[in-house]
Amino acid sequence: MLYWLLYEQLFAYFSPFRVFRYVTFRTAFASLTALFLCLVIGPWLIAQLKKFQIKQYVREEGPQSHQKKAGTPTMGGALIVISVLVPTLLWSNLGNPLIWTALFGMLSFAAIGFWDDYLKLRRGRNLGLTGRKKFLLQCAATGLIGILLLALRAAGAYSPTMNVPFFKQFRPSLLMETLLANPWTYPFAFVFFFVFLILVIVGSANAVNLTDGLDGLAIGLMVIASSAMTVLSYTSGHAVFARYLDLIWLPAAAELTIFCGSLTGASLGFLWYNAHPAEIFMGDVGSLALGGSLGVLAVLIKQEILLLFVGGVFVLEALSVIVQVGSYKLRRKRVFKMAPLHHHFEALGWQESKIIVRFWIAGLVMALFALTTLKLR
To answer: Which of 219, 357, 201 is nearest to 282 (CA)?
Structure first.
């Protein structure tokens, strides 16, 4: 909006407005705008959530130390969504279709999370959508994103080719052109495409959701992950950097840097209120929106594989649940004292604040490693 007004409309009359042409300038201000919105709206939202008794219900089978958190205002993820949406609309080029795809991904997963949180509040217990319903809704949202991507591919704004860490020339296509060339295997190419999208986007959304179990843990890791995605988006959309790093050059991806910057600023702002002891929880409306956004961004900038390192702690948390459930069903034995992984360390006697900071450190190391792979090719 501001890009359209101040650069596209008024630049001809006031030359200093040329600064709004630069993605780096607009990303910085988008981050600050998101941070400012969170800090300003936060106290009012917390008061309103308390007034309407929109509070957290803690599961009884979880760590007993968490029972004291019952009654903390929840659904604070709405604050994150607003603080990402407004700066993105203000500072990005709204003629860029990738911006709208990223916003659609965030809002669709936020809507699923909102419905889940609403059902928990209405029932007065930590029981929202069933796992199957939530998964099907997430798959449906991802399917719509996939259709958008196919339309963007036809318009030349999206490439199904992937970057692969450590390899310069190996760039597989999600649509597997060899299958598209044969009418008999044509449908399998699209099946593979949509299944892969579900693995990345739905997997990312649920990984962040599972990590959101300690005060500030998930949102602190989101600050790190979204900062790394900001760098990756910028390099993917910059012709010189993309060529130097042997990345697939995606000119339209440069505008996604502004969306990533908004994510970073909003995450920092929410951390202010979510830091231990938390004044507000994000709920599923926040965790699913953030995780879904990460997955969609990875698909749009062709860093689906690198997302495993950018969100390394999220991946470990999700894997701990998969291993725990699989082991118990097959062997009737538990690998961890409790899952997800952060609860295992709580059961070992680690203090909550120590787990949070150490997981942040692990997340930072993994994100920095992900960025180093850009040159180790």
So the answer is: 219
- Higher-pLDDT residue of 108 and 121 is 108
CA gap 39, 79 in Å, rounded: 10
- How far is Cα 235 from Cα 237, in angstroms, rounded to an integer? 5
Asked if 103 and 296 touch (Cβ cutoff 8 Å), the reply is: no
Exposure b/e, 87-122, CB count within 10 A at least 16 = b = bbebbbbbebbbbebbbbbbbbbbbbbbbbbbbbbe
Residues 6+ apart with CB under 8 A from 38: 79, 80, 83, 265, 266, 268, 269, 270, 272, 273
Output the DSSP codes for 101-121: HHHHHHHHHHHHHHHHHHHHH
Reported as a single tens digit per residue, the pLDDT across 42-55 is: 999 999 999 988 88
Euclidean distance between CA atoms 66 and 278, whole angstroms? 12
- Gap between the Cα atoms of 371 and 157, Å rounded: 24
First to last CA, the chain: 39
Instruction: Tell me the C-alpha distance between 291 and 43, whole Å.
Output: 25
* Token output for 237: 């959309």
In this structure, what token pair is assigned to residue 160?
Answer: 């199904």
The enclosing H or E element of 134 equals: helix 131-154
Side-chain-side CA neighbours of 269 within 13 Å: the count stands at 29
Taking phi over 0 as left and psi of -120 to 50 as alpha, with beta for the rest, 216 belongs to left
Report pLDDT digits (tens) over 121-136: 888 777 789 999 999 9
Check if the beta carbon of residue 269 is closer than 8 Å to that of residue 39.
Answer: yes
